Amino acid sequence: MALKNNVPEGDLAEKWTKYKSTMNLVAPNNKRRIEIIVVGTGLAGASAAATLGELGYQVKCFTFHDSPRRAHSIAAQGGINAAKNYQNDGDSVYRLFYDTIKGGDYRSREANVHRLAEVSTDIIDQCVAQGVPFAREYGGLLANRSFGGVQVSRTFYARGQTGQQLLIGAYQALSRQIARGSVTMYNRHEMLDLVKVDGKARGIITRNLLNGKIERHAAHCVVLATGGYGNVFYLSTNAMASNVTAAWRSVKKGALMANPCYTQIHPTCIPVSGEYQSKLTLMSESLRNDGRVWVPKSVADAEAIQRGEKTGLDIPEEDRDYYLERRYPAFGNLVPRDVASRAAKVACDEGKGVSKTGLAVFLDFASAIQRYGKAEALIQGINNPSSKQITELGEKVVEKKYGNLFQMYEKITGENPYKLPMKIYPAVHYTMGGVWVDYNLETNVPGLFALGEANFSDHGANRLGASALMQGLADGYFVIPYTIGQFLSNEIRTPSISPETPEFAKAEKEVNERIQRVLAVKGNQSVESFHRRLGKIVWEYCGMARNAEGLDKGRKMIRELREEFYKDVFVPGTNEEYNPELEKALRVADFLELGELMMVDAKNREESCGGHFREEHKSEEGEAKRNDADYTYVAAWEWDDFEPILHKEDLEFKNVELKTRSYK
Amino acid sequence: MKLTLKIWRQKNQNAKGSIESYQVEADEHMSFLEMLDVLNEQLISEKKEPVAFAHDCREGICGTCNLVINGKPHGPQTGTTTCQLHMRAFKDGDTIFIEPFRAKAFPIIKDLVVDRSSFDRIIQSGGYVSVNTGQAQDGNAIPIEGDVAAKAFDSATCIGCGACVAACPNGSAMLFTSAKVQHLGLLPQGKVEHETRVQKMVAQMDKEGFGMCSNVGACEAECPKEISIENIASMNMSFLGSVLTKED
Amino acid sequence: MGWIIKFFTSSIGQKVIMSLTGLFLITFLLVHLIGNLQLFYNDGGQAFNIYSDFMSQNPFIQFISKGLYAFILIHTIQGILLYFKNKKAKTVGYKGGSSSGSWASKNMALLGTLVLFFILIHMGDFWWKIKFDADSIAAVTYAGMDPIKDVYSKVSHTFSQPLFVGAYLLGLIALAFHLAHGFQSAFRTLGLTHKKYTPIIQGVGLVFAILIPLGFALIPLYMYFNQV
Fold first, then answer.
1. pLDDT tens digit sequence for A576-629
2. Where would I find the beta strands (DSSP E) of A309-393?
3. Pairing relation of β-strands A35-39 and B72-73?
4. Are residues B125 and B230 located together in one domain of the fold?
5. Are A208 and A24 in contact (CB under 8 A)?
6. Are residues A251 and A326 in the same domain?
7. Containing structural domain, residue B237
8. Angstroms from A477 CA to nearest CA on chain B
9. Whether B25 and B64 share a structural domain
10. What's the DSSP call for residue C45?
11. Most buried by CB count within 10 Å: which residue of A78, A116, A334, A394?
């Protein structure tokens, strides 16, 4: 299968503008007759459903949550990037484009990334108009802050709850369309299959989570905005119910899964405290602006800390290894996420971890507190401040900047981060890989589109901070409303799609069979226990560092686990009721297949790039080593139970030069 | 730590529920929901039906989790959602009551899970700014005083969990509704529709069967995002002003 | 006209009724207490009797008093309606404990009922007898005036009975708690809150809720202990 990315001709900077003004349109009278299914109500889904509704399409929108507002976009903390250059610090569309390409380790599609940078500015305007209360300066203008991997301040934020505020903006826009009747909302409906008619995506099969009713929904096209698959690791910063099912079911109906091995491990999460742990909590990247990362120089000290005989405070300055500052003097503690995560793993692998489990490093604010305290004393005109005064003043400044994060840390760990250095460890946070899409965000299945984290297109092998929100909203507000017309303009003569066709009946039957299959096992192990075991395998063999041997082993283990799942899983209750265990079982079943594909993809990619680090491919200093000659392509996988089939989309870089990323 | 849990079990909306007793072994570093996970694993291993409870992000922002713990929505700590509550807030040997949010407008679906779609309908009645995608002017075109933006943010921080309704002896949704009215009404972009919005949202709120505010203040005390009861007073004023002065 | 009905049947409108009638009744309490302070004159009740005669004759006062009765009635009826409507919105409570909020704020209906009973006893004993049972109250004549009702003696007789004194004290305690929440709540319902002024309103409300019932309570106590 030849993958056509449909990137329009012309200058990179002109492509989108020109394409927009020449593409096919659907007239208003036709829009009224065209139905669109949008699955998911996060930033991408809610913004797409709202905008398509505004345009006059008949939209049906689905979420498995009890309300569209619960989607996990809500948990994004730090901010959203936009090339506004309000700070006059040299930012531009090109620079945002360039930073994103470089941050992604040259594994994303130029044209898509440039378009993303172009529309980034419109997003901020749109959100402000919706009433998103972004942080502002005293003069009333929008404030910005800086994030890892870039040298300008282009991140817009609403305290530590930017995702929440943006999602509520999109949710409100969606609510307005629901009230107007242009969007029909289906809460607590989970998509369990895609329906293709004559090769085109024409509908979905859903399960009503309240009563188990299997329903058919038909439309002229289907838009997936169902997020990422980070929960394949079981422990991640994703929400408990985040899953890959909608995307994976589409893959099983012929869509391609691109670069599934590109997963982002976020360096600053609260470490695992015990076996019972159900999820990991992120501490915003913004903390690395002021926190210094370190471990003890000696293993003996580290072991004393692990046994609880010493704390970080007992280690004198000269016995501490501020390893990020040592290894990467240019960017220091603000190196990109993949680099910071791997460095933490190296330190812990050397036995220098600082928690009971040995899997944690310190993020220390002591010197920031001293620095701010001294500055604050000067501002307040205190001469010869005592060290106690300095500490108090400094703590106040830190509290003002990060108060809510420190509070959250204390709630979870029971330790006071103003006094004791924070303990952090990397955790799965985001998946760059996803359903393969072309420039129109259309998959290889005609009429099936994928937006936001669900697609693969914009972040390459590593995503920069504050870019996920940007991409979700760009896709939903400003890309899909145009590009969907390319497909739908050929559908204006297609009458309303009927769900009473053999294709729908077959899909419904298959869904019922899948449900009965997991219910019928009646084994002895809980769904949760299988998910936990799967997560451990994927983390062990396809986590922060991978090698060919481990990937083979991991793949084999997942296969065995999948077999065991269908022999020994226990799902209580029936289909015809509110049954969270059944929901989980269906999701875990899909993760069990996706996990295998991740191993296959990671094995195939004989290079280290971004979040994908192959131990066989590193420089002498242990840094990632790309192989541009052989792997400058998107690996798009067609699922096959025995051996997935690889399709390649070559990546062309005409506007940037491929360089080795260096943050030294 | 050994705990006795007294949990409300109810098969479905129409079934009669009751409090059931369970024993569970927990660790003080667990979150409250992880403690319930342990209980559910235990029940599943005994081939019994696990306790249904709502949860998702487990980091205090999605607003899905909603337990009443010892009579208090989201438990004993202030400014904390159920998922952020950790077991170190309890002692070995404690008996803990776990009940669903109670209000007529929040019917029980199963066990501890309730239906809060009434909140969605309140937002749909007018909790938005009527602006289509692409119509916006530059984000900096209208300066907004930092304090005003911060105040709007404080109201906008609502996670829609419904603890205010659950805590209110009258089952009133005034804190939820007023937080949205205030969030949008404070900002110049939302001010345009403010007077219409407040009337529509209050009308929808009444229609959903929520009770009336008697300024008890339990909503503010139990709100995991510490949204101020002042929002309610401001909405009262806006509503009065709108009804008395608006010509239609 | 439709909008008026719509307003007064809306949740906030109904609360506004409670608030406005409540504030009127609060004002009345103050006026009533000031008038009644004349019972403390050591003049055998002359000042008080002249005052009560004036109050019962003056057409303006009579007009206001009709309003007062109406407001008591509206406050009561609306309060009962609210109580049942709120009960309907929350049919089941929690077994594991009670949620936040002051006791008074959660028991306004109970307190209101106690106060209502107190008002009924109070009015039955004085207002009814003065108005419709003229024989039960003796007349008294002061120099240069026509004979007037000796209400003072009636008051002093009532408060010679410990049962009445006890009932009054109970009623006034209920009133104190009712005011402790009601005073500031009335302002909140009207939206009259402000970072600078709300603490003042709350302070004044608390002082009011203590001093006014205390002032009223002193009357039966003073009269009772003056006679024993």
1. 999 999 999 999 999 999 999 999 999 999 999 999 999 999 998 888 999 999
2. 320-321, 361-364
3. unpaired
4. yes
5. no
6. no
7. 116-131+140-245
8. 6
9. yes
10. T
11. A116
